[in-house]
């Protein structure tokens, strides 16, 4: 049976592959043999063309642009342009005169070439095609991969594919429409506050400029969970240098809250002065307190416009949560500091399973808060679902005790209910203090007799555990609470430390993936590192509106 006689149960097929992948193969020449003379359609880079580069990947356009290759009496050795199908060449034109390609209309392309290509031949090609567009699409392949052994490339490309922004942007352009939207400014708003980068002000202290010379900001603001009827206190610390060498002392810090997350508009609340240790603590006044919901927080330093981001989550009583210890549950290697550890297979899918059931995800770690940017970037890099992250306040000699105190305070003060907890054997004592039953404690690793009666060991990994959660009564949807709408999705990447930008990130990815044998069940692993060029990580957050408002403009979000 011929390939063209087998039609898929869909209207269009897209085959993505890296040109340097030794295991990749093309489909178009199987449907029409002359397509082996055409290069695959190159997917535009998202960093350069976020809305596409305007090149058409319609089948008819590709045939007309290279019409000489598809003439019945033409030779297969006819030279043609090796450029992308959307870039016409003089050799492609029947009269020898180049014709300007219109990116806005494909009708003009068709009308200019139909005379040189018989319609019957065109119909013959389109009749056996799988859709109306090109099928083979080549992804960007960085030059640094030429130094890798060939046997390692398929594993590396597989990991890159699932986190490629080029692929995501291309798919979205195929299934979504977008229109130019004109945003109208509110007459009551100060135009100077609509930009996320306001003008810098002079430091209040003269020595601040000298202290902060040649050091980078390492600010962090704690994620906050507050009860619906309790106080809402925001805490941040503003430090400079990789090891908190310099504290921002006696300087202004503006506090913004996105009171309506759907609008993307930041509302100015107040300005605080940092203490001698670089800390600020701001209690939201009672008349401005926010209702049940999840609200992004941003604290901006007036002097240099550096900032710290966090979330405020206001919960109703009895909110059900699932706790994950970052180091004990997710990391398959030793340390996040200075390297990019591999994620345990299936960990992201398990977290997403609980999020889809409606539970609030709480990430906790004994690491000091000075590592927040590194840890959040690592979670974002591997597409972990959105959740609240909590660190130890500085360097502590007993991180397990800090975890216990923190979780116990959440249960007592915010009235949350922990339904499941994940971690390592070190975390068993923490979860036992919280009065969790053995069926609610999941420990990653081999079973031991000492703790066998105190927890559930995930000795077969997260994949088997996820299957048991989906097909058993171990997990259930969260009890309905119409007032609480949790923020779903993955972490937004506020900042990326240098260790995620280095090229040796590719070698670390290869070294931790190469020993793993290929799985018999090719389930997409979404928690792998993305080996793309350095500039792929220079992502910029979209501009949002910043609003200074008085008391009368604050409205609680239902």
Automatic annotation (TrEMBL):
Residues 81-94 have a biased composition (Polar residues). The keyword Repeat does not apply. It comes from the Eukaryota. Keywords: Calcium, Lipid-binding, Membrane, Metal-binding, Phosphoprotein. Pfam families: DDHD, LNS2_PITM1-3, PITM1-3. Belongs to the PtdIns transfer protein family. PI transfer class IIA subfamily. This is Membrane-associated phosphatidylinositol transfer protein 3. It comes from Apaloderma vittatum (Bar-tailed trogon).
């Amino acid at each position: 049976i011929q390939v063209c006689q087998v039609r898929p149960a869909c209207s269009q097929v897209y085959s993505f592959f890296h040109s340097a992948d030794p295991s990749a193969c093309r489909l178009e020449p199987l449907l029409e043999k002359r397509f082996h003379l055409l290069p695959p359609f190159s997917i535009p880079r998202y960093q350069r063309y976020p809305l596409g580069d305007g090149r058409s990947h319609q089948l008819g356009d590709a045939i007309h642009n290279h019409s000489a290759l598809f003439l019945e009496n033409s030779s297969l050795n006819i030279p043609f342009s090796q450029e992308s199908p959307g870039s016409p060449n003089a050799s492609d034109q029947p009269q020898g005169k180049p014709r300007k390609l219109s990116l806005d209309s494909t009708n003009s392309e068709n009308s200019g070439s139909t005379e040189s290509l018989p319609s019957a031949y065109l119909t013959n090609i389109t009749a056996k095609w799988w859709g109306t567009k090109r099928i083979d699409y080549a992804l960007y392949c960085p030059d640094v991969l030429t130094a890798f052994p060939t046997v390692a490339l398929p594993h590396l490309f597989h990991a890159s594919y699932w986190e490629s922004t080029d692929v995501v942007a291309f798919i979205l352009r195929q299934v979504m429409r977008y229109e130019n939207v004109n945003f109208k400014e509110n007459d009551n708003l100060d135009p100077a506050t609509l930009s996320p980068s306001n003008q810098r002000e002079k430091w209040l202290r003269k020595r601040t400029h000298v202290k902060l010379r040649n050091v980078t900001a390492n600010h962090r603001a704690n994620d906050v969970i507050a009860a619906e009827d309790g106080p809402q206190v925001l805490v941040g610390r503003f430090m400079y240098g990789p090891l908190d060498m310099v504290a921002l002392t006696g300087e202004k810090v503006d506090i913004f809250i996105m009171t309506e997350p759907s609008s993307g508009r930041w509302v100015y609340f107040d300005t605080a002065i940092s203490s001698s240790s670089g800390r600020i603590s701001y209690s939201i006044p009672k008349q401005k307190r926010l209702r049940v919901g999840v609200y992004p927080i941003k604290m901006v330093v007036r002097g240099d416009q550096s900032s710290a981001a966090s979330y405020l989550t206001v919960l109703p009583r009895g909110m059900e949560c699932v706790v994950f210890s970052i180091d004990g549950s997710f990391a398959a290697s030793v340390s996040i500091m200075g390297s990019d550890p591999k994620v345990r297979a299936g960990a992201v899918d398990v977290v997403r399973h609980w999020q889809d059931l409606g539970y609030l995800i709480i990430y906790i770690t004994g690491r000091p808060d000075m590592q927040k940017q590194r840890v959040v970037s690592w979670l974002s890099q591997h597409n972990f679902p959105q959740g609240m992250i909590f660190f130890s306040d500085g360097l502590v000699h007993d991180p397990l005790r800090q975890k216990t105190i923190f979780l116990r305070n959440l249960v007592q003060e915010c009235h949350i209910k922990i339904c499941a907890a994940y971690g390592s054997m070190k975390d068993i004592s923490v979860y036992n203090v919280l009065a969790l039953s053995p069926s609610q404690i999941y420990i990653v690793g081999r079973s031991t007799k000492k703790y066998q009666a105190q927890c559930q060991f995930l000795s077969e990994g997260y994949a088997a555990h996820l299957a048991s959660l989906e097909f058993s009564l171990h997990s259930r949807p969260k009890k309905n609470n119409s007032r609480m709408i949790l923020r779903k999705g993955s972490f937004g990447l506020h900042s990326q430390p240098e260790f995620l930008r280095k090229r040796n990130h590719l070698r670390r990815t290869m070294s931790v993936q190469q020993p793993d044998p290929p799985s018999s069940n090719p389930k997409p692993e979404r928690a792998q590192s993305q080996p793309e060029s350095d500039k792929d990580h220079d992502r910029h957050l979209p501009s949002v509106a910043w609003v200074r408002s008085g008391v009368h403009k604050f409205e609680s979000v239902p």
